[in-house]
Amino acid sequence: MSDAFTPEMDSQNYSQGASAAYDAALSVIAAVEPRVAEATRKELADQRSSLKLIASENYASPATLLTMGTWFSDKYAEGTVGHRFYAACQNVDTVEALAAEHARELFGAPYAYAQPHSGIDANLVAFWSILANRVETPFLAKMKAKNVNELTEGDWEQLRHEFGNQRLLGMALDAGGHLTHGFRPNISGKMFHQQQYGTDPETGLLDYDVVAAKAREFKPLVLVAGYSAYPRRVNFAKMREIADEVGAVLMVDMAHFAGLVAGKVFTGDEDPVPFAHVTTTTTHKSLRGPRGGLVLAQEEFASDVDRGCPMVLGGPLSHVMAAKAVALAEARQPAFRAYAQNIADNAKSLAEGFNRRGARLVTGGTDNHIVLLDVSSYGLTGRQAESALLDAGVVTNRNSIPQDPNGAWYTSGIRFGTPALTTRGFGASEFDKVAELVVKVLSNTKPGTTKAGASSKASYVMEPGIADRVRAESAEMLDKHPLYPGLELA
Ligand code: PLP
After folding, report:
1. Which CATH number fits domain 71-331: 3.30.70.100, 3.40.50.2300, 3.40.640.10, 3.40.50.150?
2. What is the predicted pLDDT for the residue at 15?
3. For position 331, what pLDDT does the model report?
4. Would you list the DSSP string of 215-250?
5. Which of 144, 186, 373, 377 has the highest count of CB atoms within 10 angstroms of its CB?
6. Which residues contact 108 (CB under 8 A, 6 or more apart)?
């Protein structure tokens, strides 16, 4: 396993002047609102001095970050490349076309749409494009025949009825799915009749026979695959077979693991792009780009996806599309494959470290970038564990586990992810040490009590001295693998 590639790549960016660029930017900001400049400096210091294990976060390169701070931010560009509702979009056309080209090449996708502002927006674009493409209504027939002006109130009524009665089958939230996959509080759970597939209660693993049986019975228009907290790989060839059998569209949300697809850790049946009709992703998690979304699609869906703006999106964030182009160019470099492999290897090492120390992991381990720890064996809720770990400088997030008795707020799990610390250059031995430190915190923490003296699900009591000791041991590793090496602010 190569030690981190990204800090080395980034140091080249620093030698090209990133330190000077940030110093200049911060002094310009400070002249207007010094508290923002100060908070920005502090955010860097805080990120540098903590173990960031939030599975959905990463550290984008200075080139990507700097690209976002430009005058592209000021430009409106509703429409598509070469076909805008605003004048003077020639440079936005350049960066949007580049982002889409890099995405197509990187993922081997026939079509890419770089406008979604976030992962949720990418999913909204996907849903509406699937509805527009697959639901045959008199309205659409007229739209296609360009007789929009002849639409009657009855046509609109028919459209609302037919669009509003479609079905979606997605992974349950407590099994690791995302709230946009049909969870009730999200619009996806309201606009679709939805059902969910879970994981096997014994193994915690996806059971494709159960998914197939549900799909046969429910006959969804959309079968959604993808996850936020499932620590295993998915066989997308099987998911496509299921979708085809019931006439569903397969939509894969690879927001979490796009970096592992880009870095060719997930290939063959584990690469969703050739199998999904529509694939969505964020660009800021394992892919290590700016905050944003992408939609990839088979040719058949391209023109519907292209209507993302104005269908559900406002004007595209041109500065972020430019940064997507930069980050995707980075991800196309051969070194990104080593990075992606390191993400997966490090997750294995973290999981083995937990297993050796008697911790209980959902599914018993990992084969992606996520490790999901059931903290109930320490007598803690996820909320207590998250707070205690944060106290010790370990930044994680609490997460439901399958059939979680503590619900989605307190939870019984902690989700760990390896992309961010892998960017810093942490390797297998450091991730084993991370497991040791986490276990040290959790096994020395007990639930606290409420003001009324009852047992609390939120407060905790940690043995004195533990947080300081863990911080000191983390500092040794963090110093060895600095965040943005060479970037010094004045
Ligand atoms: N899809 C999945 C699977 C996610 O995990 C997330 C974010 O956590 C999203 C979509 C939403 O992304 P965003 O926060 O950029 O809207």
Report:
1. 3.40.640.10
2. 59
3. 96
4. HHHH--SEEEEE-SS--S---HHHHHHHHHHHTPEE
5. 373
6. 273, 274
Residue (of 211, 124, 140, 130) closest to 166 by Cα position:
130
Structure tokens at 199: 């994981």
What is the DSSP annotation of 455-482?
A: EEEEEEEE-TTHHHHHHHHHHHHHHHS-
CA 56–ligand 1 middle distance (angstroms)? 8
Q: Read off the tokens for 108.
A: 């081997």
Residues touching ligand 1 (Cβ under 6 Å) are 56, 118-120, 178, 180, 226, 228, 253, 255-256, 282, 293
What does the pLDDT read at residue 12? 56
Residue 264 structure tokens = 């060719």
User: Which of 127, 180, 188, 284 best tests ligand 1's pocket when mutated (most atoms within 8 Å of CB)?
Assistant: 180
Rg over CA atoms, the chain: 23
Q: Where are the domains of the chain?
A: 71-331, 334-480
Mean pLDDT by 10 residues, the chain (490 residues): 47 70 96 98 97 97 95 97 96 98 98 98 96 83 72 81 89 95 91 95 96 98 98 98 98 98 98 98 98 98 94 95 97 95 98 98 98 97 98 97 94 98 96 98 95 88 97 97 90
Q: Cα separation of 62 and 201, whole Å?
A: 44
